[in-house]
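User: Sequence for Type I restriction modification DNA specificity domain-containing protein below. Tokens please.
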Amino acid sequence: MVRNLNESSTPSDWRYDYLDKFAKRGSGHTPDKEIPEYWNGGIKWISLADSSKLDNGYIYETDKEISEEGIKNSSAVLHPQGTVVLSRDAGVGKSAVMSSPMAVSQHFIAWRCDNSEKINSWFLYNWLQLMKPEFERQAVGSTIKTIGLPYFKKLKIAAPPIAQQQKIAQILSSWDKAIEKLEALTAAKQKRKKALMQQLLTGKKRFAGFEGEWKTYHLSEIFSERNESGFNDLTLLSITREKGVIPRDEVERKDTSNDDKSKYLRICPGDIGYNTMRMWQGVSALSDLEGIVSPAYTICVPKNNIDAKYASFLFKTPVVMNLFLRYSQGLTSDTWNLKFRHFSEIKITIPEKAEQQKIAFVLSAADIEIETHQKQLSALKEQKKGLMQQLLTGKIRVKLDKEN
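Assistant: Structure tokens for Type I restriction modification DNA specificity domain-containing protein:
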């Protein structure tokens, strides 16, 4: 929960006032798209297409560039390096600091912070990050939510003297660097796992001691279907692409399951369940739980010649997902489905079970390592969020170097 400062709770040496009193606010514009001379002129221009690049500190590159002619013949403005930009439309509340002079579209607000005696760019960036939940609450609209410009005219901020702002920004920057380092490590581990899957699950790389030829099977030869219903007393589960098989109440989206669960299917530990209409998108998982799932899922029981964990990895590979797509039935992508009878017809080539288990062990170890990093990353971000709340509201006061 963000604790916003007001005038009465502002520390005595902090200034509480309109943000426009600290930084020069500007909006943006889109030059005429029908005039080629206004585009591709080397001036970076932040548009909705760049929303994914925000919330990561600096913004370095933009999807499109405009020209000096585009600036001259529109309301677009070239903002200096260090300007802080905030999205007021799609991706409401996302912000960044310009790494070089840039212009913005009308979907963004830009604050120039080049008056170093009033506000520091990185202090403002972190304050905007802290205020993001509030910006999201202020956004209105049925399809694309937006914040109107009048809101920003009345936006107030509490800020300490510039030296304290710089110190706060420096402290938070050290956390950002730690987060960035851990994100890069996690991404590297994920890339390594992807390469391992490509090598191990295709036989391009094999472990010592395994030399036998791989064999080709119809999926009906290595799986049977579990089609058991009437277990209403079991826990309702959901099958997800990223989190596997989990209790339905842990899924963030609204519960749309029927009150009548008599036709829901039983799934057991060791089974692989998949979304019948989204198997080709990788929505399948090995279950560690017993429960019931919607009839929209198909439940597969591994036979003795297949290791379930190995199969769960195999089903996520592009080659096999493409097979799932090819064998799915339906006139459009909205109706494509892979019933078990069509699933059964697919052929795959796999090693003996002992080699499957070795491959599954190595890939599972990679998953555990990635999950550990992701938990560390989540904890680090939560810690930073708590620190921001304390530092940016004056609850914890920083000491300047000359005070030590």
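The longest strand covers residues 39-46.
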